[in-house]
Input
Amino acid sequence: MTEAVADPPAHPLMQPAPPPEEAAPEAMTIVAWSGDLDRIWPTLILGSTGAAYGMQTTIFFTFWGLFPLVRDDVRITGTNAMTKALAGMNRPGISNMKLSKLHMAGAGPRMMAKLAKDQDVSPPKELLEMCVELGVNLWPCEMTMELLGLRPDQLIDGVGEPVGAATALSAMSRSQINLFI
Amino acid sequence: MDHPVDATIDAKGKKCPMPVLMASRGLKSLQPGQVMLIEATDSGSKSDIPSWARDTGNELLEATTVDGVHRYLVRKS
Output
């Protein structure tokens, strides 16, 4: 008696990609909590690429993550002595972000910018503009804006209306990809 | 295979994620059925452009490398 030998199961990596309607997530939400250059940079890379992927992409900016949304020409934000001092010690603007390590009083980010320029890597400012152009929802957190003394008119063009935690969670509950960076 | 090319995206020299962003932006101005040529030198584009084309439901007609330039033909669905 002969038995049919079943084909061994294909290795997962060898299986064909599932059809696009199953494969492609439809929505991604990133919580941008940090204003560090080395966190906001990958956030903007993933955010802009998500939009290029046709995903409904939202970045919810809160706490230190709000400061990269401030226009570069706004030197001091804040509504009282404490929040003004905060901006003094933590310069707002996408072009003024600090590295989380090897900052070296600003030498680190300058070296990083030079490396990026030499290798034609897009700087965070350009990626932020791409996010706006590609329709990424850039949502500032209303409560932390008030807490830290930031006004909507100090933020770059293309940023959405400030929203609350519930709105952010609502977007996250409809997202297949949720990241906290 | 010869395909008439309706638009060309020059992403040569650009690093990740720019080739995909430029391709996505370029595809928006095309009509369904039209074909876009993307040229890139970033090695990451070899995995990124085919994944992007597949996941966005468009068709990668051809992927070749000539003199270090990766060329992708994508038909808008």
In short: The interface with chain B takes residues 17, 20, 23-24, 45, 48-49, 51-54, 119-122, 127, 130, 133-134 of chain A (CB under 8 Å).
